[in-house]
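Quick note —
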Amino acid sequence: MPLTVQKLVSRITFRQLQVFLAVYKTGSYSRAGELLGLTQPAVSSQMRQLEAALEVPVFEYIGRKLFCTAAGEKLAASIDVIFAELRSLQTDLAAMQGQVAGQLNLVAVSTAQYVVPYLLKGFLQEHPDVDINIRVVNRAEALRRLGENQDHIVVMGIVPENRPLASLPFLDNELLPVAAPDHPVHSRKNLTVQQFLDSGLLLREAGSGSRLALELFCQQQRLTLAPKMELGSNDTIKHGVLAGLGVAVLPRLSILAELKLGLIKPLELEGFPIRRSWCAVYPKGKHPTPAMQAFLNYLQAHLAELAGIFE
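Predicted structure written out below.
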């Protein structure tokens, strides 16, 4: 090993590289400190030590804005390689000991964010050495990431049939017609589905999974959708229902507390609830990592248990 490399290795620590990467990704010393549980002076100190070891600046301020230097960009690329090798080493060492470790990158469509935490609790009890990253996105972004093979598993509802995707259904997703308890729709006799849909429907934006499920249902039943208002999330729609703005069709899992407290009331309508399945989805032909395979195995082995959580 050349002396210059020996000198560099003796002066650089993994902690400095970790702090550098946090600053690089957040673009801020203070936000990097919040991410790592460090004060801003501690972050600054780590960066000064790193720059002294490298003998080049890795960040610079222009005005009040922080920029990464050309040397810093090279360093960021090298750190990605170093940390990737460390993750691979962690996985290999765990496998030698009969354990599952490594990184598991999950993506959940926005409505699935209510489900994923319950999946992870039991999984991490069985595999505590797995490092999990979760990203919550809309359906369009989830499909884009699937197409580019950016993650290990995407948790979503309706899986496109025209794409080379593998999926594991693991939990029912019930879509309920609901309104506030004092909404006039509850007093109507022999209420039809079309009358419900015409009672001020609050609906997700085009392309969302829950809207797509409702659209497919309406196509099959020859019903028309004329939403009163389009909103960008199920939480926003839920609060719109609570405020008496209109009626909605919402995933049961997103309104469990409100249903128990009687703040939102479901309606008995023909064809409801609309039943779909939450699925763990990944590209066909993808070679599962040990952590990914362990997660799929966990879902398969705990189907009945997962269903019971939300009863």
